[in-house]
Amino acid sequence: MTILDGKKVSNDIKDEITEQVKKMKAKGEKVPHLAAILVGNDGASLTYVGSKVKACERVGFESTLVKMSNTTSEVELLDKIHELNEDPNIDGFIVQLPLPEQINEQKVLLAVNPDKDVDGFHPANFGKMALDMTTFIPATPFGILELLDRYGVETKGKHTVVIGRSHIVGRPMSILMGRKGFPGNSTVTLTHSHTKNITQITSQADIIISALGVPNFLKAEMVKDDAVIIDVGITRVPDDSTEKGYKITGDVDFVNVSKKASYITPVPGGVGPMTIAMLLKNTLLACERHRKNV
Ligand code: NAP
Q: Which fold has domain 28-112?
């Protein structure tokens, strides 16, 4: 069994990006600039945005964190998005989700300039992804593809089962694994909360990508020998023995499933760090594309 070490691979990617940024600086070029809008004080969101800003510093990007209060109106947020759309110094930006309930998430995602949509959530970019056109692939699916690629995991002709159909992970993942190319060329089954007899489906899978957010959902008896297991789940489970009072837990019963798997991602240290690395990669791509258009 091989651990798909997202921490190591993400550090490799960050090192590669750092080198590229150094070359840009040496040529006197502007370095990539990522902005993040955070609305409200959600603990997990604060942590995620903090990690993204730190990752920018690590690779030499510029970063801007725009903090807005929990009572921000939709109009105020849309105004801020338009400002970032127009700002030539910003190559890409993200709006951290979830948003407070007074704000319509779809309106917000539609307002982001697709050329700066480094999260790849805008319908124009999602459509391009589905049509194999050059675009920004959402960071978590992009990170999973990169892990499979760097470990040379065969996906052609395999049966991939994706659990969860969210717009940011499961749905794009199902499209990407079924596309022509590598990683891809899989036969894909997309499952969700209405799927019947899920064990029957997962136990036939060569590759399982689990993104539902239910701790330890995927048990050893649901998995066949030598399956490839990608665990996207991140759930904070209360745990008094830790300083923070919680423990990050994945969707997969790692202890038992890892005994049967050929490859498996740990949680933490698997898909999570890859997501941030690929957000940086998308920002670098955005910067390069903007430069070419100038
Ligand atoms: P989400 O929006 O929370 O949706 C969960 C999906 O799982 C839905 O499609 C739901 O089906 C499905 N589901 C729920 N119970 C199920 C069951 N018993 N059997 C089969 N499917 C079931 O999903 P998400 O935003 O993709 O998040 C999923 C998990 O990934 C969360 O733990 C999240 O924190 C984590 N995550 C991690 C990263 C990372 O960087 N590692 C990034 C994003 C998300 P319905 O559509 O029928 O409701």
A: Rossmann fold (3.40.50)
The CB of 193 under 6 Å from ligand 1? The reply is: yes
Output the pLDDT for position 291.
84
User: Where are the alpha helices (H) located in the chain, listed in sequence order?
Assistant: 6-26, 43-59, 74-86, 105-111, 123-130, 139-150, 170-178, 198-202, 254-257, 271-293
Q: Report the pLDDT value the prediction gives residue 294, as an integer from 0 to 100.
A: 56
The correct CATH number of 139-273 out of 3.40.50.300, 3.90.79.10, 3.40.50.720, 3.20.20.70 is 3.40.50.720
174-183 mean pLDDT? 97
Residue 200 has pLDDT above 90, yes or no: yes
Query: Is residue 166 lining ligand 1, measured as CB closer than 6 Å?
Result: yes
Does the beta carbon of 211 sit less than 6 angstroms from any atom of ligand 1? Answer: yes
Summarised one tens digit per residue, pLDDT across range 216-232 is 999 999 999 999 999 99
Tens of pLDDT, residue by residue over 277-286, are 999 999 999 9
**What was the pLDDT predicted at 13?**
98
Protein residue whose Cα sits closest to atom 24 of ligand 1: 166
Half-sphere exposure of 225 (CA within 13 A, CB side): 0
Contact 246, 197 (CB under 8 A): no
CATH 3.40.50.10860 location in the chain: 28-112
Please tell me the distance between residue 125's alpha carbon and the centre of ligand 1 in angstroms: 21
Q: Is the pTM here over 0.90, yes or no?
A: yes
Decide: residue 17, CB within 10 A, 0-12 exposed, 13-18 middle, 19+ buried: buried
